[in-house]
Write a structure and sequence with these properties.
The protein is built from eleven helices and seven strands. The chain is α+β, with helices and mostly antiparallel strands. The protein folds into three domains: 198 residues, de novo design (two linked rop proteins); 100 residues, Orthogonal Bundle (Helix Hairpins); 166 residues, Heat Shock Protein 90, CATH 3.30.565.10. Helix 3 runs antiparallel to helix 4 and helix 8 packs antiparallel against helix 10.
């Protein structure tokens, strides 16, 4: 069974047929107009001129006969002078006719006219001579012979005129025939164009506009059944733009889901590793701390062993902190969501790190017009994020550095109304390659760092439905911007499932 032609092919065929019909008619018309113009030019240049010359030959011949008769009547030589004028004109017409390039029949008649006219002119001269000599009787007798020659020449001139009049008539008939053909072709082309146009309109309405209308009605919203007819393309354009916007949002959500899935797979692997680490390190570490505590009481407070015990205790606390961060990354705690202003969480975080900032000689500036609107968040986890960024900025700055905290409420395409908090330090900044990796787990530029702080911060912010971004140039400090939507965050199922 043959596959039916697609709509695109059918429309292309109809449009091609319309173009061919129109182009074909134009070409035929142009060709016939060109041929007709050539035919008319030929008729005007040849046949009409031939008719005119034949008529002028007849006129010149008749005028000669008239002036000859006038001379016979009164003997006035003025008539003979005028006779010579028309004789010269007749000879010139004959020469022009020969040079004109007539057909074979016309050339034969012209030669016959020329031959007979020469005899007629000689006979007429003899008659005139007899009349001048006074022998009118002999002249009248010879004049009858000359009249017979005149009649034959006149008939030959009429025949020449008739031949070319017939050619003119045939030319006119041919022009009329071609004109009728062009008219018929125009009617046929018009009928074909109307038929193909009607077919194209039918296809547009039944196979394009009607499905578009049904699609718009099926959408049910702005382009629903109540939408006015006649603006299907505008309605479809609105639907397409809406669809593209939905696709863009869906793509963003899919990208987030992909990142979440990749992190979940990594977390599952790290979680299994963390369980082993917890059993392999924490239990022996606890025993070491207990033994160390017991031994500390037997150590002389002023002895050299006191410093060794302090160093060992500090390093054990550091190992315990690393293990805790590792376990927190692999098994994040369940979020306890509530409505809280990020400004309050920022103030709490600053209180907790104020001593560290003061001892480091860091100045804090808060650019806040009003407190940020409440967001749905876990205050303790947000506080952990803010403290991590503040401490990282403190480590990146020398004494006398400045940390600027800006708080704004914005309308964003991705989040709608959102709270935006940015932390800008005056530290040494980061190169582009480092900036791209700072949120990756276990990436760090510090010798004593675990590389989990910013990764945990990024995970917490994303679980709150927000985003965290870093901007920095080497030698020009760094800015961390956190964006949190002010609406209700739909993460309950994911957070509840993490134990």
């Amino acid at each position: 069974m043959k596959k039916p032609l697609s709509l695109r092919v059918r429309i292309a065929v109809v449009v091609a047929a319309l173009v061919l019909v129109t182009a074909g008619f134009c070409l035929v018309t142009l060709w016939y107009v060109y041929q007709t113009d050539s035919l008319l030019s030929s008729a005007v240049d040849r046949d009409f001129s031939a008719v005119s010359i034949a008529q002028q030959l007849t006129t010149d011949l008749v005028m000669q006969k008239g002036f000859t008769t006038y001379f016979f009547l009164d003997g006035n030589t003025e008539w003979l002078r005028r006779l010579d004028t028309w004789h010269t004109s007749f000879r010139s017409r004959l020469d022009a006719a020969h040079a004109f390039g007539y057909g074979r029949e016309s050339q034969s008649i012209l030669k016959d006219i020329e031959r007979r006219y020469a005899a007629y002119s000689a006979l007429r001269s003899r008659v005139i001579g007899l009349y001048r000599d006074g022998d009118r009787q002999a002249g009248a007798a010879l004049h009858r012979d000359a009249r017979g020659q005149f009649i034959v020449i006149q008939k030959l001139c009429s025949r020449l005129k008739q031949i070319h009049e017939q050619k003119v008539s045939r030319t006119v008939s041919e022009v009329r025939r071609r004109s009728r053909f062009i008219h018929l072709t125009a009617y046929a082309a018009m009928a074909g164009a109307v038929a193909f146009s009607a077919l194209l309109v039918y296809m547009l309405f039944t196979q394009i506009l009607r499905p578009i209308r049904q699609l718009i009605n099926a959408a049910g919203s702005d382009g629903g059944a109540g939408a006015p007819a006649g603006n299907e393309m505008n309605l479809l354009q609105g639907q397409v733009y809406g669809l593209l916007e939905d696709v863009s949002q869906t793509r963003t959500r899919l990208e987030k889901s992909r990142r979440t899935l990749a992190r979940s797979e990594k977390l599952a692997l790290v979680g299994r590793l963390a369980a082993g680490i917890a059993h392999s390190i924490r239990n022996p570490l606890t025993s070491v701390k207990m033994r160390l505590f017991s031994l500390r009481r037997t150590v002389n407070p002023d002895g050299p062993e006191k410093e060794d015990f302090d160093v060992i205790s500090t390093e054990i606390d550091h190992i315990e902190s690393i293990v805790s961060n590792f376990l927190e990354f692999s098994r994040p705690p369940r979020m306890k969501l509530q409505r809280v202003s990020p400004s309050d969480v920022v103030d709490t975080a600053l209180q907790l790190v104020r001593h560290r900032l003061e001892t480091g000689g860091i100045d804090i500036k808060i650019l806040r017009r009003d407190k940020l609107p409440p967001v749905t968040a876990d205050p303790s986890q947000l506080k952990e994020v803010f403290i991590n960024i503040l401490l990282n900025g403190c480590d990146a700055m020398q004494p006398g550095g400045v940390m600027i905290i800006r708080e704004q409420e914005r309308e964003l395409l991705e989040f709608g109304r959102a709270a935006v908090i940015s932390f800008s330090d005056s530290g040494h900044g980061m190169a582009g390659q480092i900036r791209q990796k700072i949120f990756q787990p276990f990436f760090t530029t510090r010798d004593d760092g675990t590389g989990l702080g910013l990764s945990i911060a990024s995970r917490i912010i994303e679980e709150h439905g927000g985003s965290i971004a870093a901007e920095s140039e080497e030698g020009k400090g760094a800015t961390f911007t956190i964006t949190l939507p002010t609406g209700q965050v739909q993460h309950g199922q994911n957070t509840d499932s993490r134990r």
